[in-house]
## 1
Amino acid sequence: MSLPALSNTGVLYRRILAQFPQDISVAFAYGSGVFKQHGTSQGQMEKNMLDFVFAVDDPVTWHTMNLLQNRKHYSILKLLGPAMISSIQSDYGASVYYNTLVPVDGRMIKYGVISTDSLIDDLLHWKTLYVAGRLHKPVKMLVQNENGKLRAALVSNLKSAVTASILMLPESCSEDDLFLQIAGLSYAGDFRMVIGEDKSKVANIVKDNLQHFKTLYSNILRDCPQLVYKPQQGKLEVDKSPEGQFVQLMALPRTLQQRITKLVDPPGKNRDVEEILLQVAQDPECGAVVQQGISSIVKSSSITQSIKGIATAGLWKTTSYSSKKLMKMWRGSRRKPSVSQMS
């Protein structure tokens, strides 16, 4: 099964990609500059920054080439050279190196570079949920090579998003409920949702992109043995029995299982994961425990990646970028759209 590709790559995206070294295994564009969000006009959308992620097999070589082609994109860290930049990329935060507020072809862009191996690790195990979380939502896939392991990891990430979300949903729910839950996974515990992000961001992402979410998830929902999917009515019925929830918990990514066991198992007891998850499956608060586990992953990665972002962007760009985020947050608080309006 292949990832449903939203790959209508316009001339603009091809022109932007042409400015970078071409040894890229995956490139995608995401965010409010790419997909319309509720409450944003077409004119506003065209002024928003375009966000990209590039996965590369060899970060040292890629940064070497990019420093030759686009040295001005980098902060003062460029003086450390490509090997140190690659080390900062892989060893700190969420294993992504961002250059932000970069003018390219008439648009302002931000792009993150991650190694292909780190991306696969995050997709399969939710080590940071940083890039994996972005790929829970519709993205515009620009480049995707024939790496079978990477393709399988992209699909596995979507399946994990469904599994984690149905553990937090009631027995009967709507497609909208599921997509809101999925879209919110990577924001759970993110300190930027307290200061710096529009509080209605998750609802805004889903409301105007329901068809994109259906394209991304319909096959997975039809094939999932833990639920009954009724696409005509837009309804789901989830197996909430202890046995069903145990199967779902056992299918979760490894890091999330570890976070759940740490929350539930008292220090020094050292029970095995299967025994602990069996206990959680029978707990009426099972969904809340899963939510806490996800929040703990996102919280740590969002803080460390943001601290790293100050160095990779430089102080002036960090201040400029943060002020724009705060302005969007303020505008969003004035609109205050209701999630219930989605139904």
## 2
Amino acid sequence: MTRQLSPLSVAEDSAAPILELQNRSPSGICRHSRVERQSRSGEEGTQTHTESSSQEAEGQTRCQSCTSTFLKLIWRFLIILSVSSSWVGTTQFVKITFETFDCPFFMTWFSTNWNIMIFPIYYSGHLATAQEKQSPIKKFRECSRIFGEDGLTLKLFLKRTAPFSILWTLTNYLYLLALKKLTATDVSALFCCNKAFVFLLSWIVLKDRFMGARIVAAIMAITGIVMMAYADGFQGDSIIGVAYAVGSASTSALYKVLFKMFLGSANFGEAAHFVSTLGFFNFIFISITPIILYFTKVEYWYPFSAVPWGYLCGVAGLWLAFNILVNVGVVLTYPILISIGTVLSVPGNAAVDLLKHKMIFSVVRLGATIIICIGFLLMLLPEEWDEITLRFINSLKEKKSEDHSEDMTESSVHTRSRSRANGTVSIPLA
């Protein structure tokens, strides 16, 4: 029999799927919302992990930069301290040696011979640090370019080395003669005048830029020299010692200016090669001078065992260390740090003279020393110091004006909020 469907049954059959869909729809929506929440939470977790990892990376980078900056400061401080202490030690060792061995030229010649070891020390450092190591002959030829494209020839050896070797010997010999007449503090302070002499010679010979601050520094250096000579009334050993010290500073300045004129700038290897060449020239050609002084009894010692070889080796070793530190410091750090280390030898020698030798410094000598040191520090100003100072002042003014405008903005916002809280409106005047 064929079943007849009533309208009611048709309606019931048609409504069943709808009810079924209605019954299923809430669970489907819940599942969909759960999936969305899980995906959102996963994205938020990924973003949080990424942010935390980036913050950790930034923290590590800052920590590494702070550590490297701290290590650089420590390294520069050690360079300054080493330069100052080596120069103070050299000066004090010379004073001690003079008590038993009064032969300044022999001491100068003996110490200069030690310069031969500078290039071998440099090559040892090259072997220890360089990735591509070179043979000694190849490295020697490479560093010989300071004398020209053809390297070191016999003609250039005599032409370029002889004048610089003579100036080197004169500088050290006059410095030792000055130490026989004056205290270590006075001599080290007067020797700092070489910076002013370098500027004057460079301005005249090399046509360097004129700087008013350095002219003032040169005048201060000359004033300190006159005051130092006046300390004992322009008489006795004082005026002679001042003349020796000023002569040493002058020959040192001439050495530096001529080096810049004929040889230009040099890296550490070229400088080590050149100084070793000076020591070799000193050993070959200057050795006749102490022999002549010995037989003429100008610098005579007897017996041979009476020579204080320990003190002489101490002077030569400290002098060698100072020369190496100067050349290494200029390459690895800034030349200004070497100059600061040199000028710090003045208070270092003063401390030794005061504590060990019980020296009493007069007001005139103390004033002269301070004036010379201030002049030396003025010489360290860069050539663009005036432009740098103006830029710094302008930046401070701009920062101050920005801070003032920010304060005005904050105060106006605070005034508006207060007026709104009180029910009034503040109208700015035109």
## 3
Amino acid sequence: MENSQAPVGRRTASTCGWRGVFLPQLNRQSLSVYGSEIAVEKECIRQLQSGVWVIHPFSPIRSYYIMCMVAITFLNLIGIPMEIAFLDGYSGVGWEGFNVFSDTLFLMDVALNFRMGIISEDSEVAILDIKKISVIYLKSWFIPDVIAAFPIGYILLIAELQSHSDTSTSGSKASRMVRILMFVRIISLVRLLRVSRLVRFFNEVSNANLEYVQLFFRILSLFMMMFLLCHWNGCIQYFVPMLEEFPSDCWNATVGEKYSFGVFRALSHMIQISYGSTDFVCVIQEILTVMCSSLLNNVPMFQNRDVNFLNTVLLQFQHEVFQEDDVIFHQNAPGDRMFFIEHGQVLVETDSFPQELADGDYFGGQTCLMTKGKRLATVRALTTCQLFSLSSDRFQRVLQSFPDIRRDMEKYAQQDKEDVIHL
């Protein structure tokens, strides 16, 4: 439309120059609240007549500002746990710059919230009075926002610049500085309170009168929160043993595997809560069927078996990770489980000759599932290995539900006892 025929709300905003960006814009949301273009026009006039610099809840600048803050907040909620868990105090200039920028932005956000108009829950009229806005903000989100905006990025940047400038620092003073930096980084977890910005944004959108907007952002918030919880759990899986300098009883895995394990465990808990225990078992069974069915099919004793039996066996699989040069088991050790190689290479060291096994192979002996015995070889990981194991006790419990297969397995173990290598 031409300006002469533009809606009244748009004409008012256009005639106010730069101040128009702080006035309510004419869109579906404002129309759903105020009911008509004339009502939006009156709201613009009401704000202009107040003579106070306040950002209207339906103004275009507030929409762009909120989207910017949501994006920065989401990046912070991803980056802060990664910085603490993985960067080990060497985050680099770019990352420190982003931290300083984020801290500055959140400090500005605290100040701007005293000038941000509010749509109260029990009223469709925007609150534009500064005193009322201040009282509402101080009683609600002010304290979490101040804590989350604490400029830890500035502190870390100054401390690191100081540590780099003191090249002649003694060893004890340098180690003390490292401990201080680690303490500050742990304290920086308070910045995760910035999640409140996401909570407010999604609460505000969920109160909108547009149903398709509510549905879209509810789904988006669900996926974002699921992702963040999985991501945080993955970082914790690495961070906790790192604080203890990776003790000897810490399970062996690389950085990526620790993180992936944490993500998978958090996701599995959320699936169980969302779907219930029965459906959760079905989900896990489908995952294991896709991942491990080929591993079972490579073993002669499991070929051409009933599908229900195989699916029940798959549910008994346990995932294990070994690093390069780890001994999976020693010769003459008790043989109580069978191993399936999902990814990696192992070396089977027998008295006669060594043998290398790789993806899709199995070891540990088929008959050990039926009759426990001593290992006849030592198996060592040549690379980082991701294995699935099936214990004899778990397998015996499965056979109790399948008596016909149990009798067949016992015959199979008896006939092939001399032919099958029992490691």
## 4
Amino acid sequence: MPTENSCVTTSKLTATGRSMAELKAVIPARCFKRNLRTSVMYLMRNVSISAGAFCIALSLDHFLRGPSALSYLSILWANIFRWTSWIFYWWFQGLMFVNFWAYGHECTHNALSPFRRVDDTIGTPYYSWQMSHVIHHSHRGHAEKDVSFVPPTRSDLKIPRHEDTMEYSDFFEDAPFFTLGKLILRQQIGYLAFLIDLRTTSPKTESLVCHFLPSSTMFRHRYKDVVLSDMGILVMGGLLFYATQSFGIIWLIKTYGIPWVALNNWIVLITYLHHTAPEIPYYRGKAWNFQRGALSTVDRNPLGRLGQCFFLDAGHFHVVHHLFPQIPWYHLEEATNHLKAFIGDYYVYSDEPILKALWRSFTECQFVEDEGEVLFYRNAKGKARAKDQ
């Protein structure tokens, strides 16, 4: 992870006078060009790969259950190979589901093609998430106006003002197994909870904001679009119900349900670590601006080059994505190299192992103070990696 000093320097980027125009000027114009043919080619390739994995998993399961396999293998070894193949399928197909989610993310930013209607058609149903995601991009790093990664404050958690004799253990459970259980639960249902009620990630939101309710205050101006998204979800639900009636609930859980759970885990893991670390600042008032917010993100390297294929590079080059979200994923690496050369230490990258980073951020990023304009997360002992300003 960057040193504490480099992260504090990141919070002072605008003091160097770097405007959005200057940042954009260092990135070649070709990086901003979106090509529908290229995007569709990659999409169809990945649909074929996912369908192939589905067919192979079912074929292997059928073969290892049949007399041909049992003529060479004992029942024990046949079952070991069969369940090993299913575990690999769940891991692989879960990542392919993330890939399809990432295409929807590209559509949200109109980065799949130059045509808004084409991206909306391919990305549907996603309109309500599109709207909340745009707000996230518009207010990234703002301690109160972001909607996806808003840090709870001392008063939100009802923690009294700091005193030297204060016992923070009265407010935070420090048993490792309890913390691990909370982390696992959040990994599995965190994204769904966010869609159902925005307040799970935005404690400053006062009323229910559900991505499935077109009457929610955030979505009223696009009521019909949210209804259209809900209709798309109902159609998918109908298809899943039909599959259950035709092939059984166990078949559906094995082929679709477990990869879907894995998808949710990856989404929470990647997005959380992009936006959360003890060294990353949040801002209030005049201290915040778009550049500062966008640069208070962390580039990481989940699964290396393999992860770039599954996560469409936005999982690895998220800093430049926050600055210029219409850059298509196949140009993000080049754009990042040019941006990094220009801003130097203001660019934040971490090569910390993903699971270690997840545990560190989850246990150390507990709350921020109610006062101040440049804020850093405090841990369960009330300590921060850098001083608030």
